[in-house]
Amino acid sequence: MRLTEALIDERALSKLQWRCRRGLLENDLFIERFFQLHSATLTVRHADALSALMELSDNDLLDVHLARKTLPQVDAALDRTDVHEVLKMLRDPL
Known about the structure:
The protein is an all-alpha fold and 94 residues long. 61% of the residues lie in helices and 0% in strands.
């Protein structure tokens, strides 16, 4: 198994959850749901992609989540396969 496909450990998961706390309630709600659904199966690669998304401002993150803007519109460096996968995981209710 490649390192990036390894599951994230508990300590790293806890740090990531803390890092994902946002100023907008709407962002916090969909991120909380993401962790409820995916924390047990979150890989290092997905954690890195989620961390990259958390570099966005609250408004840009919400706009991308709601598909009002695309990743290249807010930050071309985020237009990567792993970030798109995490964004899909954030959007999907199940």
